[in-house]
Each structure stands twice: as structure tokens, then as C-alpha cells.
Design goal:
Chain B: This is Dipeptide transport system permease protein DppC. Chain B: Its main location: membrane. Chain B: Keywords: Membrane, Transmembrane, Transmembrane helix, Transport. The complex is a heterodimer of chains A (303) and B (352). With 303 residues, chain A is of the alpha/beta class. Chain A is built from 10 helices and 12 strands. In chain A, helix 6 links the parallel strand 7 and strand 8. In chain A, helix 3 runs parallel beside helix 5 and helix 5 runs parallel beside helix 6. The radius of gyration of chain A is 20 Å and the shape is globular. Chain A starts with a strand and ends in a 6-residue tail after the last strand. Chain B has 352 residues and is of the alpha+beta class. Chain B is built from 13 helices and 5 strands. In chain B, the strands form 2 sheets. Chain B has a 3-stranded antiparallel beta sheet with strand order 1-2-3, with no helix packed on it. In chain B, strands 4-5 form a two-stranded antiparallel sheet. In chain B, helix 1 packs across helix 13, helix 2 crosses helix 13 and helix 10 runs antiparallel to helix 13. The longest helix of chain B has 37 residues. Classes of the chains: A alpha/beta (303), B alpha+beta (352).
């Protein structure tokens, strides 16, 4: 398979200092994450809030530099390139942000917004109108400002911006997270239509397993900065292995997190709400291993 | 532009009025050469401290004249400098009169002025000063200097503040440290004394053009520091916004992100700030001229018109019209403040 993006053991730690910097609190947002994005195969990344999905998306695009590990684009390492040298990569891998109310510059008209994303050689009016037509925005909107549009319309503009310049891969970071159910359906249909038209590969980030399993061919489940389960979409959705994935599918069985919030520095991250934890889970961290063909899981239950 | 005016009008009628008032005032100062009856250094030697001319419609015999007219005046009491009108001849005010050629900003020449009266009578709308020069002419001519200094000065500070603040905030690190320390050095000096000492670095006998540019430079050098600091703060917060991240994700250059995505979002603040700071420049120029360090006689500016009253307490009782320059400064100041306040609201895209 044609690998577009490959992340190898990337790690990102955020350090939050309090006033005067006396107490430091570290949050491990990405903990040795390895993931492959292959041409034509949509990859879904699911997980609850704070599991590091958005950080992963931004690190994949090198909008955030990882503390350790490498990112490869078409098997070429790009981790330490400067923004200027990343220009080619960024015209080929684009991102759609979660919040369309924040991701559009309030000072730029729709036309300017799209033009910014086009290669400078063909920033023609016609081109802008073509792209707007693709995402179902009437061309009269060219001169409008983002705040004059609804959330769904804004997200369409954000999609149009990502598509300008014909990328091969689009990272969609919860593109429907801030939209109502009806608009969500429209946006998802649009994304599917555009995939066929432009032969795109999506990295679809969501907390909604159902959407992800509909759209994606591969699913990676993240929990507290780790990938706990990874595999083909039908496997992961029909036959979840990791207790966390099971809990995601069926939130009722999830055990509430202990109020005490016991901090085990070693051991499995999911231990607080795991229903089938064992002695070993407290002191060791499970490695991700391939349990079935194309289906890996990080849990001692499956060793 | 039309939208802008509409929004301004909708926001408040007063600010709409201020906007047009300032536009008209700037036009007046631009075309001052046509509007003023006398050249700014033309002296009526026999008429110092002449009060504002009385404009009559009805003559001594009680007849009404459509054309307003003035009488010639002569000194009645040389000690207290009181003037009396000579009722024997009427001098009607003429419009579009001919006179010596004047250059309007080196663009075109004119021999026609808006109004005037035949010699030997004179028309002094705002009276005359100690040399018998027409205050009205000097005020309008001086407004050109005072207003242009403030606008040019403000624009230079604006550009300097934008560049320094933008660079410091966007690139951070050592750039930020160096630029902000420079700004702080400028800010620790009380601005008025800094202004005086900067002026003291240059000789006193400069030509008026040199002084003009010197003042512009001094004023803008003092003005940019505060602006740069605030813009830096705004850039620091804006650069964390999603749309800046989005701009980065499109592979745009730093320069483009800074100029097209970050700085425009500081405009609603900066335009307001510079509008409100324009009066400061007018006052700064006036203050320098008042101390004799600014625009030199015979060239008029609002500051040195006022400075002729300094140390001369009699002026306030005998020739209060010399203080009209202060009134002009006050009016321009108020209008800029009202406009600046309205712009804060009107230029915010969220209110469109």
C-alpha cells in the first residue's frame, strides 16, 4: 500500500506551570504513538475528550512539533523541517478544524479565505467559484464575511479551503463537533462525495464511533495519549477487544472513574475504569500487539 | 466605504457628524490658500490688536444692503488700542476677488481668493495680532501645519508600532526581548521632556521645512512605543487562534500570516488608538511651538499663534481673539475623540 503519512513513536508532553512556575504539571498528550495513513484508506481516530486526538492531528501536520519520534511523508522524514520547507507537504495534506466559528479569519471575505489556500499561480475568481460550487455554497457568498454565515456554511467554507489546491489527504478534526444533527449529516455526505471526486484520503477524528465506522476503513482507538486498539473498521466495531473500546460502544457498561483518582504512574492508563483489571495491570503497561490479522490491541487480556 | 459611513451613522449621529466635520476641516486646511483673504505674513502695520471686524448689513442711515459691508477703521486711542469705524465710505465684502498669485501646495496657482474687501479697509474675521496680521488667515494656514504634522506623525508611529509589535509578538524569543527592551527604554522617559531633549539635540537655526520634519520625527518617535507594546500583546493572543493555525496549515509564509492574518485583526484596536492619539500630536506640536522650539515665525501654527499670548497677560483682557487657536485645538480634539470612540465599535467585524 501507498503510505502517505507515517508517525513513529511520537511523543508530546505539555507542561503547565502555575503562577511563578513553582508547581509543574505535566500532561502526556501523546505517548509513543505510531500510526500509518495509507492512500485510499480512511483512518478513523476515536477516543474521549482529552485523549489526545486533536494533538495527534496537529502533530501529524507538524503544527505542533513532537518532543520525540518522527513523522514521515511518503517515507521522507519531515519532523525537523522548518515551516518554509514544509510548504509542499502542507499543500498535499490539509486539515479541517473542529470549530468553524474559530477557524475562519473574521477579517477575510470568503473569496480571500479560499484564495489564501490556492497556489499563488491560479488565484482566479473562476477557481474560487468552482471550489465553492463543489461544497454547495452559492457564489454570491464570495464577498461575505464568516460571521454572516451559519455554522454549517462556515464548515463548508473550511472544507472548501482544505480542498483548494487538491490535497491527497485531509485530516478532519471532529468536523461536525459543533454542528447540529441535520447539518452533521449534510457535512458528512459532502465529505463522502468529495472523497470520490478528488480521490482523497481522510483521517477522520471523532468521539462518535458510529460515524467513524461508517466512513472509515481503519480505526484507531485512543485513550490518554495511547492507541489502545487498532484495526479494520468492521473488526473494531463488530468485535471490540479492549475494555475501553467496549465501553465506547456501550457507554452504559463503563464504570465511573474512582473519585479518588488513584494515580498509578506505571501500569495501564485505563485502569481506573476498567471492569476486568488484573494485578498485573497496576504495575505494567501493555504493549500494542497484533491479536488477529490487522487488529491490534494493547491489553493483557489478550496475551 | 459606503457601508462604513452607514454603520457610523447607525452607531451614533454625533460621530457621523464628527467624521464629516474632520473631513471638511482637512479640506479647508488643504485649500487654505484660496480661502484666506490675506497672506499669512501680510502685516497691517497701523492695525495691531485689531478686534474682529464688524460686518454690517444696515448703514448709518438705516438702509439695508443685501451685500454685507465693513467700514475702514482708525486708531481711536493709541494707548489702549481702541479702534473706531469711519462711517463715510462703505466697503462691501467681495467674493472671488483678485490678488497676488499664490501657490496651492505647488499643485496649481491661483490669483482668486474666496473673499476680501478693497484697500484701505481690511476684513479681519478673527482680529489681528501684535504685528497687525490677520488671525483668521494665520489660523487656517497654520491648521495645515498642525493637522498634517499630526496625521503624518500618527502614520509613522502606526507603521513603526505595527512592525515592532508584530515582529516581537509573532517571533517571540530574542526578537521579542530586544524589541521590548527598546520600547521600555523609550517609555520610561516622561514624553514631554524626551521631546524637549530630542529637540535640543538639533540646532535652533534650522529652516522651517527642516523643523517641520524634525517635529514629525520627534513626535512619531515618542508615539510608537506604547502602540508597539499593545500590538505585541494582541499578536501574542491572536497567534494562538485557530485561524492562524489554519493559515499555517495551508503552508503560508510567516510574513503572509503576520501581515494578512494577524495584524488585520488588531485593526479595530489600532485604528481607534491612533484616532484618539491624533490630538496628542497636535498638542505636542503646539507645545513645542509654544516654547519656541517648533514652527518658527513668520510661519503660523496653532502652537505659535498661542505662544504669542504667553507672558502677555493683557492679551487675555484686551485681545482675547488671539486665544482662538486654543479653541480650534479643542474642537479638533473633541471630534477626534468622539470619532475614535465610535470607530472602536464600527470597525469590529462582529458588529457588521
Amino acid at each position: 500500500m501507498d503510505k502517505i503519512l507515517r508517525c513513529e513513536k511520537i511523543r508530546k508532553v505539555f507542561i503547565v506551570k502555575d503562577f511563578l512556575g513553582v508547581n509543574k504539571r505535566t500532561t502526556v498528550a501523546l505517548n509513543d504513538i505510531s500510526i500509518n495513513i495509507e492512500k485510499g484508506l480512511n483512518t478513523g481516530i476515536v477516543g474521549e475528550s482529552g485523549s489526545g486526538k486533536t494533538t495527534l492531528a496537529r502533530t501529524m501536520l507538524l503544527l505542533i512539533k513532537p518532543d520525540a519520534g518522527s513523522v514521515y511523508y511518503r517515507e521522507k522524514e519531515i519532523t525537523h523541517l522548518s515551516d518554509n520547507n514544509l510548504r509542499d507537504f502542507r499543500s498535499k495534506v490539509r486539515i479541517i478544524f473542529q470549530n468553524p466559528y474559530k477557524s475562519l479569519n473574521p477579517r477575510l471575505t470568503i473569496e480571500r479565505t479560499i484564495k489564501e489556500a490556492l497556489p499563488s499561480c491560479d488565484s482566479h475568481k473562476q477557481k474560487v467559484e468552482d471550489i465553492l460550487a463543489q461544497v454547495g455554497i452559492p457564489k454570491t457568498y464570495r464577498t461575505k464575511y464568516p460571521h454572516q454565515l451559519s455554522g454549517g456554511e462556515r464548515q463548508r467554507i473550511a472544507i472548501a479551503r482544505a480542498l483548494a489546491g487538491i490535497p491527497e489527504c485531509v485530516i478532519a478534526d471532529e468536523p461536525t463537533g459543533n454542528l447540529d444533527a441535520t447539518t452533521e449529516v449534510h457535512i458528512l455526505r459532502l465529505l463522502e462525495k468529495l472523497k470520490e471526486k478528488f480521490n482523497l484520503t481522510y483521517v477522520f477524528i471523532s468521539h462518535n464511533l458510529k460515524i467513524v465506522s461508517d466512513i472509515c476503513n481503519k480505526i484507531a482507538v485512543m485513550y490518554k495519549g495511547r492507541i489502545v486498539e487498532e484495526g479494520d473498521a468492521c473488526d473494531v466495531s463488530k468485535n471490540p477487544l479492549h475494555p475501553y473500546t467496549k465501553a465506547l460502544w456501550n457507554p452504559d457498561i463503563a464504570q465511573p472513574i474512582d473519585e479518588k483518582q488513584t494515580k498509578y504512574s506505571e501500569g495501564c492508563a485505563f485502569i481506573d475504569s476498567c471492569t476486568s483489571r488484573k494485578e498485573r495491570c497496576f504495575c505494567e503497561n501493555p504493549e500494542i500487539i497484533e491479536k488477529e490479522k490487522n487488529h491490534s490491541v494493547a491489553c493483557f487480556l489478550y496475551e | 466605504m459606503r457601508n462604513f459611513l452607514g454603520r457610523l451613522k447607525k452607531y451614533s449621529k454625533v460621530s457621523y457628524f464628527s467624521f464629516w466635520f474632520l473631513i471638511i476641516f482637512y479640506l479647508v486646511s488643504f485649500f487654505a490658500d484660496i480661502l484666506i483673504p490675506y497672506h499669512f505674513d501680510y502685516q497691517f502695520r497701523d492695525k495691531p490688536y485689531h478686534p474682529p471686524s464688524k460686518i454690517h448689513f444696515i448703514d448709518t442711515e438705516g438702509r439695508f444692503h443685501i451685500k454685507p459691508f465693513v467700514y475702514e477703521t482708525f486708531v481711536d486711542d493709541p494707548i489702549f488700542r481702541t479702534y473706531k469705524e469711519n462711517y463715510s465710505v462703505r466697503y462691501p465684502i467681495k467674493f472671488l476677488v483678485d490678488g497676488p498669485e499664490r501657490n496651492v501646495f505647488f499643485i496649481f496657482k491661483t490669483k482668486k481668493y474666496l473673499f476680501g474687501v478693497d484697500a484701505p479697509a481690511g476684513i479681519f474675521l478673527f482680529g489681528t495680532d501684535t504685528y497687525g496680521r490677520d488671525i483668521f488667515s494665520r489660523l487656517l494656514y497654520g491648521s495645515r501645519i498642525s493637522l498634517s504634522i499630526s496625521i503624518i506623525g500618527v502614520l509613522i508611529s502606526f507603521v513603526l508600532g505595527m512592525i515592532t509589535g508584530g515582529f516581537a509578538g509573532y517571533f517571540g524569543g530574542i526578537t521579542d526581548q530586544v524589541l521590548m527592551r527598546i520600547v521600555e527604554i523609550l517609555m520610561v522617559f516622561p514624553s514631554f521632556y524626551l521631546m524637549l531633549s530630542l529637540r535640543a539635540m538639533f540646532p535652533l537655526n534650522l529652516s522651517s521645512i527642516q523643523v517641520y520634519f524634525l517635529i514629525v520625527m520627534i513626535l512619531s518617535l515618542i508615539g510608537w512605543a506604547g502602540l508597539a507594546r499593545i500590538i505585541r500583546g494582541m499578536v501574542l493572543s491572536i497567534k494562538e487562534e485557530d485561524y492562524v493555525l489554519a493559515a499555517r496549515s495551508l503552508g503560508l509564509s510567516h510574513w503572509r500570516i503576520l501581515v494578512f492574518h494577524i495584524l488585520p485583526n488588531t485593526f479595530s484596536y489600532t485604528i481607534t488608538a491612533i484616532t484618539i492619539s491624533v490630538p496628542g500630536y497636535i498638542i505636542g506640536e503646539s507645545a513645542l511651538s509654544l516654547l519656541g522650539l517648533g514652527i518658527q515665525e513668520p510661519y503660523p501654527s496653532w502652537g505659535n499663534i498661542l505662544s504669542s499670548t504667553v507672558g502677555n497677560i493683557r492679551v487675555i483682557s484686551d485681545a482675547p481673539w488671539l486665544l482662538l487657536a486654543g479653541a480650534f485645538i479643542f474642537i479638533i480634539l473633541i471630534n477626534f475623540n468622539i470619532l475614535g470612540d465610535a470607530l472602536r465599535n464600527v470597525l469590529d467585524p462582529k458588529n457588521w
